[in-house]
Description:
By secondary structure, the protein is of the alpha/beta class. 29% of the residues lie in helices and 25% in strands. The chain folds into four domains: 12-240 and 252-262, Rossmann fold (3-Layer(aba) Sandwich); 275-369, Rossmann fold, CATH 3.40.50; 376-447, Luciferase, domain 3, CATH 2.30.38; 456-549, ANL, C-terminal domain (GMP Synthetase, Chain A, domain 3, 2-Layer Sandwich), CATH 3.30.300.30.
Amino acid sequence: MAEASPVVDFNLGEVNEAIAHAIPDRDAILFRGRRFTYRDLAERTRRLANYLLSRGFRVRAERSELAGHESGQDHLALYLYNGNEYIEGMLGAFKARAAPVNVNYRYVEEELVYLLRNCRARGVIYHAEFAPRLEAIRGELPDLEVLIQVADDSGHELLPGAVDYEEVLAASSPDRPEVPWSPDDLYILYTGGTTGMPKGVLWRQADIFVAAMGGRRFDGTEYRSLGEIAENARAGGQVRSLILPPLMHGAAQWGSFYMFHSGNTIVFPDEPRRLDPVDVFRTIERHRVVSMQIVGDAFARPLLDELAKGDYDVSSLKIIGSGGAPLSTRNKEEFLDRIPGVTILDTIGSSETGAQASHPSSREAGVATGRFRPVAGAGVVSADLRRVLGPEDREIGWFSQTGRVPLGYLGDPEKTARTFPVIDGVRYSIPGDRARYTDSGEIEVLGRDSVCINTGGEKVFAEEVEHALKLHPAVFDAVVCGRPSERWGEEVVAVVQLRPGARIREEELLATCSEHLARYKLPKAFVFRDQIVRSPSGKADYRWAKEQAAEVASRG
């Protein structure tokens, strides 16, 4: 029996440099009429890294000296909309051996203070639009020393002590920073916090590269050298990928770096602050975009409505990738009808696992939702966390990942131990999704246990009911949650946004749901709202949904 190949680890900064050396003149980023080649990207990020080093950013403890929930690096917060500066901020931090931290630009002052304190940010790169909010909280952030402001159309002047982003790059050295890049250097991803306070997930760069950023081939094997990585990138370059989700969330970061590590080009729409369907389709036409990344129905529905009424050339579009939130069967089918030859690639994963599984839908292969083909290391473990389940098992367990998984949660050893248990000597990541194997060997993901509704002793997964509701043509969007009930313990409540001009009776929605769900899963009440509140990444805000559910009377 042949011995397994030894594991080879890589640092994301060194990967970027190797690819830039191999394809220096190929486009890396296209944004608002500006073209950044791989050479440009490498040089600009070296300049940023050298500035950070000049301001005292450093490694305070190497990985070997630390527990899984600890960081020994300085942290750089990225408080930005999508654009080249976000990508440059990540790579510049990596090359300075600092760890970039994603900041949700919708946070109010109290939430910002929590996040920036929790991650102990020493510096922040921010759009000028956010300057007043930062100025209001600076007195509460004594560790925040370095402020780098990105000019925009807001008209806000530099904050006291802040420096202009482009001026910093112009004045800094383009040479390779004089620090020893390590595969153990951190990649930090803060969770969205829709069901609790955000937590910083700590990854080794070597692990996230393989788990979500293109560090493994389609056959599951990992790259063995920088030369192999560079050659793979050199052979690519045929894809221009439109990134629509905010880079402050993992799905967009992973999709972007996957494209970079394949030698392809990422494209941002001109309007990065919100989803503008007209801008999206004009960008596809202008750049002959081949793939587009969205987040479930929250992105799909507005795009489909615009596509139905507009006259756009989307013939270049071959792949629509969706992750981070469910994409309903009805919307998949409409994409397939409106864009001939397109394939829809559903992917699933989490901040704590990386990309775990995928499912393609096409006119030839058919459409399915909620079922996925697992990648290496993905599987299901039993509800009691004692057994690893196989495809022959039909019980509901936990969606799990092993192999290249995170180190832990920043500053939280207890949550780290709960989320990353050891089973039969193997360390697993189990962030909270319920799942089971299907007859075909695929994995059916039922949804987060944290939003599972226990009604009359039966478990109802919110996403399952949401999917059934969206099959009705009058429903634009829906979020399902539980509400306290004297009779049932909890009862299922649906918060529904109808399509413009639509009118519908609750009985009609119940009839649609009853065609796909057992009786105990049917909503006991409906709340109709003009708009469903979601995060910028398209994820449901279940805390908001519970507030809406509390306002209506029970159906009994």
